[in-house]
Amino acid sequence: MKLRVLGCSGGIGGRNQRTTSLLIDHDILIDAGTGVGDLSIAELAVIDHVFLTHTHLDHITSLPLMIDTVADRRSQPLTVYGTDSVLTILRNHIFNWAIWPDFSEVPSPEKPFLRYQSLPVGQSIELGGRTITPLPVDHTVPAVGYRIDSGRGSLVFSGDTGPCDAFWRAVNRIGNLRTLIIECAFSNRERELARVSRHLCPDLLASELLKLERECDIYITHLKPGQVELTMEEIALCLADFSPRMLQNNQIFEF
């Protein structure tokens, strides 16, 4: 299994800033932020599955445009996975005819461009030998993280979250954990904003990682573009024992 980072920034600005999206092999997306826009039309057309962590704009912004771009090149609907709450928000506030057409009814309800599939927390789905499982997190809107398991190893992506004991309990049960990609959206000087918005800053992340009972490589994602250097300096100071690295666009993981 190969995972390619299409976007991992907490915002835009500059040629290297793309918001969250991860491409698994050639046909699965985890989130659909602005990084999806760097794919060619041919690459977009072969994506069959999109797993959403939550519906904040930086994680879904390319989804409506992607469907519109490649619908005429596909013979089957694109499947979008999420919890019931996530899919309800998507239906009510994005694919609602006011913001974007309801592609679950176009060109017809019998043969739509888009289909939804509910995936509750803790319930796994297997796609061609790849198992994907939503994990509990704590954010301001309904949200999940994901475990991606090749059978030989697992990568965990936190999505957006603040402190969450349930997340760590789930992670600590993963016997073949290799990689943890976890957010750190704010610097310590904005700790209160991180707390209110249910994100992490370096001090909060340091406290959370004390709950991790598995050895794995740790990568930091969702850094705010204007605070990358400051936040990574703070992470280096308070998380040195964990040797975290900053996630990079176009980084590839094989597991």
TrEMBL record:
Domain Metallo-beta-lactamase: from-to ranges? 18-208
Superkingdom, taxonomy of origin = Bacteria
Cite a single Pfam family from the UniProt record.
Lactamase_B_2
Q: Name one GO molecular function term.
A: 3',5'-cyclic-GMP phosphodiesterase activity
Annotated GO biological process: cAMP catabolic process; negative regulation of glucose mediated signaling pathway
User: What protein name is recorded for this chain?
Assistant: 3',5'-cyclic-nucleotide phosphodiesterase
> Organism, per UniProt?
Azonexus hydrophilus
